[in-house]
Amino acid sequence: MSGPEGLYRIAGLDSGVYRLRATPSPSTLGKQRESSFYPVGMDAQAAAPVVVLSGQESSGFDFKLLEVSAWPVEGKVSFEEPIASSVIYVERVESLGADKQRVSLNRDLTFRIPALTPGFYRMSALLSAATDDKTPRREAGSLDFTVKDSPVEGLLLPMRSRMVIRGTISAGRGTPLPPNLKITLRPIQTNGISLKPSESRPDGKGEFQFEGVAEGPHFLNIQGLPSGLYVKRMLSGTRDVLRAPFIPAAGESLEIEIAEGSAISGVSLAERDKPVAGAVIVMMPGENIASNTSWKWIEESQSKGQFRKNGIPPGVYRIAAFYSLDMAMLADVAYRRKVWNEGIELSFPERHGAVVQVLVKESPQP
User: Fold this and answer.
1) How far apart (Å, rounded) are the C-alpha atoms in residues 271 and 282?
2) Which residue among 54, 154, 257, 360 is the one 20 to 30 A from 299 at the CA level?
3) Which residues are registered as beta bridge partners of 111?
4) What is the pLDDT of residues 321-359, one digit of tens each?
């Protein structure tokens, strides 16, 4: 906290790079000083970095707090059942959450924020209904709005239902389900609600469940797969969600099947059949090369040039070896095509094995 003359001192910081922000005491309707990152403004991206070194004292980091008008914001939440609990926040978008404040919700589901300075804001909410069910119905919602030069009235924060998603996972062909599997579900866009994924572990029968799942697209992933297995199928009802985002739908259940994949082993060679250690082995699908999410495998060869990969899904692939490779460039479709063109084609049916020799090449030019 700064003193009467606006002077401040922060002690006990570890070495590192920081962003400084000054927040004046809140006021009611009228003029007030606006929060600011160092040196000025509420844009967190434009904040100047402050480098702190251990054992050294830095000074001269002066803020310029602008005096602006502040206006009340009023509205209501669209929710038809009694509320058991509510979490509502409002934040200025460009501050990246640095000025997030909690909003009180009245019994009639109205809210009033005494004073917000001009800017672009996002309000997010997570509500639970007061029901007799052991798992109360939950809804989430968000609303973007702008404060200009007058009070904001009549906002309506819409809510979206959250669902219970059930499913099963199996290994097929009588294979027992591996232990320590974990299924994760993460919203692709949450409009202000946390991006932290939900997790569920299947029971002995392979059954699992997610509670409080919001509408909209999600990433669905399987973690803890042992070497040699791959995800063969993911269905939501009759919809394929292995190659597309999972969009929850009421009444549909997830069906996931994992299976034993194919295997490849081989050696990376230079000219005159000399093994190359540390060569970059790249294996990519024979189609959908433009997709950065398509199955691919990247590995370095071992001391005698050998390499091995299990759990390969059925399909047609190309495999290539390079002395070095800029991994970041693989995000570019045109460069990925050049890498793909250098490979030799291999076809894998289910549970197939292949042994290959791959000639090591110089990496393609961007």
Assistant:
1) 19
2) 257
3) 75
4) 999 988 878 778 888 889 888 999 998 888 888 999 999
